[in-house]
Amino acid sequence: MFTNLQYGGTMPFAKTWRCADRVFDLSARPLIMGILNVTPDSFSDGGDHNKLDDAVAWARRMAAQGADIIDVGGESTRPGSSPVSLEEESRRVLPVVEALAAEGFVVSVDTSRPEIMTAAAKAGAKILNDVRGFDLTGAAEAAAATDCGLVVMHSFDAPRGSDIVAAVYDYLAKRTTVLRELGVSSDRICWDPGFGFGKTVEGNFELIAATLRFASSGQPLMAAVSRKSALGAVIGREVPKDRTAASAACAVIACGLGAQIVRVHDVAETRDELLVLAAIEKAAARLVH
User: Fold this and answer.
1) Which CA distances in Å does 83 have to 41, 75, 80, 109?
2) Catalytic residues
3) pTM
4) What is the pLDDT of residues 224-263, one digit of tens each?
């Protein structure tokens, strides 16, 4: 990472991320988390992978393109989306988790419901990814009772005029404290500042610019910027699938600033840009030494 090179490799970035029986080495390269939405109404790819066979096929394709983790979501988090019942989310998600885990994929489940967290872990998920920061009643306790890696995200509206970076950092730190007090080891807890959730366009990019501050927390750090509307506002593209280049560029810039995991729709394009970043970083390291 360029930023760490500037400081002689002394920044207190996380070295590993413990996810059940997998321990990811975060010092080698950024991890790619491929998005698999099994929803009819997700903002970017709703309805594309609703059938089990289609979902498994897409996961295989993303893995072949370089995805380290498959993130399965059964409820859309786009603004204005309709909530689904617990039964419907279970029906959408759990068969996919079981099928992917049986094939050896590292599966993440994007959910805020404690019941889904418990069931997903039993079905073979190794990561629980909660856009609400394990803040709903029972969610933190359910997550702590598993051995999964946990992604804590900030998604609440930030007060206008506030220091967005400080507000998000403080929230993530407080949620981490809650999980630690429930017995979750620090190396299981990954931070996601929540690009695109409850922030202005300017606030979103302030979070990217402050990636070093979040990475310096010592927690594994995720950049989840893929196809978000803030990117569309900057490049003038309203259709989410037309934001591939901007998404990959933003993810790679975040990695250059300290992010260690990227959550993306477009795995192949992101992988290519990360390989270029790695080549530049190796060249920079040679120049430093």
Assistant:
1) 11, 7, 9, 17
2) 228, 263
3) 0.93
4) 999 999 999 999 999 999 999 999 999 999 999 999 999 9
Where in the chain are the domains? 16-288
Would you say 4 and 11 are in contact if contact means Cβ atoms under 8 Å apart?
A: yes
Q: Three-class SS of residue 111?
A: coil
Are 226 and 263 in contact by the 8 Å Cβ rule? The answer is yes
Sign of the dihedral through C-alpha 63, 66, 68, 74: negative
CA separation, residue 272 to residues 237, 241, 249, 275 (Å): 22, 18, 11, 5
pLDDT in tens, 105-160: 999 999 999 999 999 999 999 999 999 999 999 999 999 999 999 999 998 777 66
The amino acid present at 256, given as its one-letter code, is G
DSSP secondary structure string, 144-184? HTS--EEEEE--SPPPTTS-HHHHHHHHHHHHHHHHHHTT-
- Per CATH, is 16-288 categorized as 3.20.20.20? yes
